[in-house]
Amino acid sequence: MKPAPFGYVRPRDLPAALAALGEPEVSARIIAGGQSLGPMLNLRLVEPQLIVDITGLAELKQAERCGDELVLGACVTHADIEDGRVPDVTGGAMQRVAGSIAYRAVRNRGTVGGSLSHADPAADWVSALAAFGAKLTLRSLAGSRTLAMEAFVVGALESALRAGEIVETIHIPVMPASAHWGYFKACRKPGEFAHAIGAVMIDPSAGTARVVIGAIDSAPILIANPAELFGGRIGGDYKERFDARVADAILAKAGVASPAHRHIHVGVLQRAVREAAA
């Protein structure tokens, strides 16, 4: 199939892009890497009247460390991170996540902001950035606002973006030197979408953790009280105290009804915990 007819604009700067998106009574979609939108257009799953191409916006390709966080423009590609063209504030964790996304051809063109905007619960950055404690700056003609990553994806393929609004920047906190990172996903073969994702950032010295279960049929789960996974205490021996029964109960409460599916998710999360402890 081929896309339904649509108009096309390539704005010279971000204000021009926002003006195009803010046109009343015009259904518009943004294209950057096109790795998600392209197939959707061809299959006519979406039929926008206007495509706004933001690949030429230099302000969305910036990546710099500002104080205690890394600020990424939405058009930074997965390959930019994988190849080290982006400052590393996570001890290599971001590079490992980026390098595991799909295939190199996809990573060359796919953007972080585009992946987040698509809001697929099986996408790597959706879970990983929640575990990092990242925040997003969203911008429209009306101004900007900031959301925590875990509040951005509200359902499968459903984000908190409002009409005329785009992801402008991603803010990733510097990972403490004492923190441990683990990330694991289950795929039938390399390059496929994940069937289960576990992402954990654990700081035993501070007794804190961020634990995310992704690739479920709704928004990824950021576990509110991660200490319950480890017998009530996050310490140096957390790997040995991981309680699979607690993880299973959290998944059941979140609506994952199939015991087989919960078993896969629990196993993947345990692998992520083991990787963090290695």
UniProtKB/TrEMBL annotation:
GO MF annotation terms: FAD binding; oxidoreductase activity
Coiled-coil regions listed: none
Q: Which UniProt keywords apply?
A: FAD, Flavoprotein, Oxidoreductase
Q: Which PROSITE patterns match?
A: FAD_PCMH
Where are the membrane-spanning stretches?
none
Identify the residues that the record assigns to the FAD-binding PCMH-type domain, covering every copy.
1-177
Keyword flag Flavoprotein? yes
PANTHER family from the UniProt entry = XANTHINE DEHYDROGENASE SUBUNIT C-RELATED (PTHR42659:SF2)
Q: Which protein are we looking at? A: Carbon monoxide dehydrogenase
